[in-house]
Amino acid sequence: MKNSRKLSDLFYNNRFLLIFSVVAAVIIWVVVAVEFSPETTITVRNVPIRISSTGLIDSKKLEAFGAENLTVDVTVVGKRYIVEDDSIINDLDAVANTASVTKSGTHKLSVDVGSVSTRPQYEIVSYTVSEVEVLFDYYVEKQVPVEPVVSVENGSFAADGYFAEDFEPAVEKVTIYGPKSEVESVMKVDAYATVAGNLKDNNGFTASLKLAKQNGDTPKYVGIKAVTDEMANGSIYINTLIYKEAKASAAVTFTDVPAGIADAGTIVEYKVEPAQAVFGFSDVVSESVPVATISFNEIDFRNKGEQTFVREYSGKEGVVIKDEETGKPGAGSFTVTVTVKNVGYVTVELPTEENPYAMKDISNRHGLKYEIVGYGKQSMVGVFGASENVYSVSAQDLQLDFSSVAADATGVIEVPVILGRDSCWLDGEPSDYTVKVNIIR
Fold first, then answer.
1. Of residues 324 and 334, which shows the higher confidence score?
2. Where in the chain are all domains bearing CATH 2.170.120.40?
3. What is residue 87's DSSP assignment?
4. Which of 72, 267, 336, 356 lies 20 to 30 Å from 37, alpha-carbon distance?
């Protein structure tokens, strides 16, 4: 009774009565507003259309292309607080029916719109799309080349007295993907760019990628797999080098020249045809350019007549030859005519069983003890050299090379013979000359 009197006393409190009245009024207003809210008609825009899946499509592994952005506007009627709620779009289910799809190709699909809720509190009155076209096809990938399509704003790409190499995309081939029927009709990807002309310095630029079918149409639903930052933005970087054009003499480099011969020109004469050519230099212009390399092993030093060697020059880093027909870096053929001079020839007898004379050895790192028992493949060693040196070569200049002999070698083995004269060289291959030795244990 005491608590009841206290609760009833609240109703004699003016402040309490005021608060109670306001709360009660709000509750009554909300109930009435919800219960007796007027119905209204609104259009829910851009409701996504989903593609229904069927067992047939799944078994054929067909994919729907171009359906990602299909939408429909749906008109609904219902109480204002229901239909004007932004979340109503999540309760609308727009479906493109694929029951008629039995093979690849473009198909017209009927669109139905319903509700996710089993008992929706609104009515669907109409919708703007009753049919959509969707391409069903097999997903494929393939590689195609990138072909630069460059427009020059002013004159030629390279300035007078300069020329440029072919444009080189950062990626020569790209992977495209999409529906089989569209991908198969794409043979290349064009890279479009407009650049300033009359350039003198090495230059690179960015070009926009554009897909095109064989008939020139733009393929549908075909994409490019990006492997660079530029490609992610639909473009590609194009490299090119610009060369300063200049005439230069053609030079020859000789290799495998004996260490004692400082200048190959002292024992061979040569001439090059053409003696000059037009070259391109990306840096410093040179008066001569090495266009041919000839090994001393290729030259027949017995032949006192002219020997001809043909070499193709396609350029090296920073130096190219200009193709007069295309005006771009190309390849040139140079003929080198060599004449042997001031070269003599002697032969030296190798040790035999009858005359097993002593020879110096080198690289006998295992300290093997041995005795010479005879020659190997040939009994005589042929030696070429500068005339002033070769005729003094004797058996004392021949050496045994133990560098390839194992520490556990036993019995009779063959050891290569080498020449200890820097200004002379053996006739033929080092393996042609060996001496038989018996390893002593």
1. 334
2. 139-240
3. G
4. 72
